[in-house]
Amino acid sequence: MSYFSDIYNGIKTLLTGMSITGNYFLHSRKGAITQQYPDNRETLKMFDRFRGEVIMPHDENNEHRCTGCQSCEIACPNGSIEIIWDRQLDPETGKKKKMIDKHIYHLSMCTMCGLCIEACPTDAIVWAQNFENSVYDRSQLTKVLNRPGSKVKAGIED
Amino acid sequence: MKIVSITKTVHDWLFSIMPEGAASIVEMVLIAVAYLAFFAVAGLYLVLLERRVAAWFQLRLGPNRVGPQGIFQTMADALKLVSKELTGTIKADNFLYNLAPYFVIVSSLMALAVFPFTQEFQAFDINIGIFFLIAISSIGVIGILLGGWSSNNKYALIGAMRSGVQTISYELSVGLSLLTMVLLTGTLQLSEIVEVQKNGWLIVQGHIPAIIAFMIYMIAGTAETNRAPFDLVEAESELGAGFHTEYSGMKFAYFFLAEFINMFIIAAIATTIFFGAWLSPFGITDSIPWLGVFWFLGKTLLLVFLMMWFRWTFPRLRVDQLLTLEWKYLLPINLVNIVIMAILVWLNLTIKF
Questions:
Q1: Higher pLDDT, B170 or A94
Q2: Do residues A16 and A91 share a domain?
Q3: Residue A48, in any domain of the structure
Q4: A144 and A81: one domain?
Q5: A99 occurs within a structural domain
Q6: Exposed site from A93, B57, B225, B294, fewest CB < 10 Å?
Q7: How many CB pairs under 8 A join A and B?
């Protein structure tokens, strides 16, 4: 008699499926996941884990957390990061200290693998959530991440 | 009576200005043009409806940019397809390759002619209406087979062969489920079937066996139109685009439109046979006969929606599952159902108002 129970179960499961999709259909207005992109440019916010580009956050005193250890430059598989550094006199201790001059990031070469951010021991670089990265000249994609005149935050190296 | 009176005025006017033979030919051409226009517009808007409904099922929005709520989207698509180059394969059988789309499109156009859109608004009230519909709907598969065979492409050929298997199998169920209802009406003529339904739609008159017949008809009808879950004919993941892999531009559009018109036809047959065609529920608009068009189209679109619901819910069947469903389940149930219906009619157990 499995013939008739098969038919019964078949119809029952098909109707279950239809009720689920029907429920989606009725609630599609509220729950539509489509972003109507150029229209909602003002309000569109990417989720936290979105990998837009690498940035270096600065605080209000124009201080960043990069010590110039070059871990990110070594970790990068395709050479997107170049760090220009030199040894300067630390005004507080009077000793010579390694400091970054420019943290150069080539967005055009970056594959968004995130290895630099994982490698960074001081969390100096993070992902930004912006996504409108197109420009008319590729030289604009080469970015200097540390702001002019910025310095490393005190106490990071300890 | 508005529509009827318009057709009558045109008819009288034509016969007053030219000889009888010429007038009737002009009339035929006019009707053909009207149906062609309906075919094109209905096809395009069914495509749009499908895309919007599909989007809503998947929690998307669907095309809403071309015109208000995207109503010109498919028009734009059609314009694009018309302007595209017609490519073909070098070793294709050119004659059959070019003939195939017309087979598909003409067969679905012919089927459109017999539907009673409202009282006395029917191009061709043939006395073997249902038989004609069943016969015509099986011609379309020849176009698909020709297209698959002549494009000299193995995917197209496999798709066409699957279509042959599928249509020949499911034709039986479509025919037998309609036959079940014919037992109730006692006639094959569509206008008379509508007359019978003035005592209650056939799905009410025939109650249990009619509902079973309707379910079988909808399953087999979906299979006949080669739509999901029976779309192994054009299974994208296996066969590219199936039988129309090698078609481009307008010839592809013919296949595409014919698929949607076939869906409309299947739904329209179900409306006519099971849901009383242009009759309003409980006769609420019997005094205004031209409203029948809206009832007919409304019921048909509801059934079209049901088929879209199937499509966006169920996964595709394998070939063996397809044949098991038809030969082990639908066909035996259908045959038993006919006997039940015959007993019902014999013992006069039908529900009539």
A1: B170
A2: no
A3: no
A4: yes
A5: yes
A6: A93
A7: 40
Per-residue pLDDT at B2 exceeds 50 = no
Judgement on whether residues A26 and A61 belong to the same structural domain of the protein: no
Per the CB < 8 A criterion, the answer to whether B216 and B173 are in contact is yes
A77 shares a domain with A141: yes
Whether A89 and A29 share a structural domain:
no
The CATH number covering residue A87 comes to: 3.30.70.3270
pLDDT at B3 over 60: no
Query: In B, which residues are within 8 Å of A30 by CB distance?
Result: none
CB B129 within 8 A of CB B114: yes
Instruction: Give the total residue count for chain A.
Output: 158
- Confidence grade of residue B240 (pLDDT, cut at 50, 70, 90): confident
- Half-sphere exposure of residue B89, counting CA atoms within 13 Å on the CB side? 18
Residue of B nearest to A4 (CA): B329
Residues A61, A135, single domain; the answer is yes
- Locate the chain A residue with the closest alpha carbon to B53: A25
In a shared domain, residues A28 and A57 = no
Helices (H), ranges, chain A:
2-26, 28-31, 71-75, 115-119
Tens digits of per-residue pLDDT, B291-325? 788 888 889 999 999 988 988 888 888 888 888 88
> For the segment B52-87, what is each residue's pLDDT rounded down to a tens digit?
888 888 888 888 888 888 888 888 888 888 888 888
Between residues B347 and B286, the one the model is more confident about: B347
Q: Residue A104: which domain range?
A: 53-152
Q: Which residues of B touch A (CB under 8 A)?
A: 53, 55-61, 309-310, 312-314, 329, 333
CA distances from B31 to B11, B28, B290 (A): 11, 5, 18
Minimal CA separation from A136 to chain B, in Å: 27
Q: Are B313 and A18 in contact (CB < 8 Å)?
A: yes
Q: Which two tokens stand for residue A24?
A: 């989606």
Contact of A38 with chain B, judged by CB distance below 8 Å, is answered with no
